[in-house]
Amino acid sequence: MLHAMSAKQLEHRVSSGVFADDFREEPYWWTAASPVATGPSSETRLPGKAEVAIVGGGITGLVAGLYLARAGADVLILDAQNIGEGAARRNAGFVGRTLKRSVEWISKKEGRDHAVRVYRELDSALKGVKALVDAEGIDCYHMICGRLVSANSPAHFRSTVADLQSMKRNLGFDFSVIEKHEMHKELASDRYHGGAVIPDLGSIHPGLYHAGLVKKALEAGVRIHSHTVVRGIEGGDGLKHVRTNRGVLEARHVVIATNGYTTKDLTWHARRVIPFRGFVIATEVLPEATIDKVLPNRRTYLDTKMNIDFIRPAPDSNRILFGGMTGTNCETGTGLAAALHARMVTILPDLQDVRLSRAWTGHCAGTFDFMPHIGLRDGVHFALGYNFAGIPLGTHFGKLIAARILQRGNTGTVFDVENFPSVPLYRGSPWFLPLAMRYFDWQDRRIATHQ
Ligand SMILES: Cc1cc2nc3c(=O)[nH]c(=O)nc-3n(C[C@H](O)[C@H](O)[C@H](O)COP(=O)(O)OP(=O)(O)OC[C@H]3O[C@@H](n4cnc5c(N)ncnc54)[C@H](O)[C@@H]3O)c2cc1C
User: Could you tell me if residue 345 is inside a domain?
Assistant: First the structure.
């Protein structure tokens, strides 16, 4: 069992050839879509003015910028890093309509109508990705491949099926039950106690999706400046002054789209998002027959734990991507990659002798209420806290913020709530995360042995 693996055993794994000759600590997606420096060199001062300044050049910032520029607005996107160095080109490319809070959970707390509205909007965000990809002709392997959710215990199997039944009853979302003895039709693993396939969920190549958005935004006239750190935003409801490491910019509208990378300069927002690390590995190129055996239907795969393990095939080569150990407090490093390899093999023993070609990490953003948030504070728009659903929600919120600034169309959303919670003394460094993750892991282990 992975948790019991000693430092010595790990060291042995590292030295015993888990890594392919071309192994790199870099997102697999960067092979096809490497992050880029965009705009004038970092010594150049900023242009003094823009109608809309967007902080963060991930999915949210680019989608907002694209729609605004198409409507004639003068838009400047500012990003502290190369464009594409955030989570947008580091994620796993699952396109779903899932949050950590189920329909039943939200119903108990906030009523069934609210829960149904949350999941309706998640569904429309899911469909919005396909609509955007199709409308813009972005070549990014968007596929409706279906998702297998595998149960970690018999009790989890029952509750997963009950949740999906509730979604079907209330929202019409389809699914099919996979009994324990049928699991090998879906996944070459004896680890799970049955599962369910949700047929209309999708996947994407996140690097190519984001690169496609950059291209479209630039063509629409958006100016994008990388290596520009926003240090503060001053001004009330009128003109704003955006202070950066390259001078001050005046803007009529400002959008914060920084999710898990929100710097502490953005004090109010940093106090409300909990950055935590996700980790992913990619195998070397495998024989087609291995993928056919291990992931015969080439879906996306995750389990029912709080701290999930997730699996998918690469869309553009015969590799398998595996992720987990979210929130572990370290840089990627070969030790962590070897630990993830060991974890992958406990689930998919056919991959025992398979080596790794990539390992990487990135920042996701949790929130204290496990919900994403969009809103306006002190005249500044924000969309943050995607809780692992940033591909559909970043796309959806980017579009919504553009519509709000343009004052066009229906701009209402169930995620626009008054209360975006923080906790006393929290300033954006989640010192409690290792403890919280240990608690979730303990709960997950308990669940795994529960009948
Ligand atoms: C390992 C991993 C796996 C994931 N898997 C999935 C998945 O399968 N499906 C899914 O839907 N989601 C997934 N996510 C989450 C998803 O990637 C994110 O929610 C989404 O990309 C974040 O939103 P974004 O693209 O708008 O911002 P990001 O791409 O995170 O960009 C934010 C940008 O803000 C910039 N920034 C921050 N502060 C400042 C500042 N002060 N000044 C200037 N710039 C600033 C940063 O430099 C950064 O580039 C995953 C995330 C990770 C890390």
Answer: no
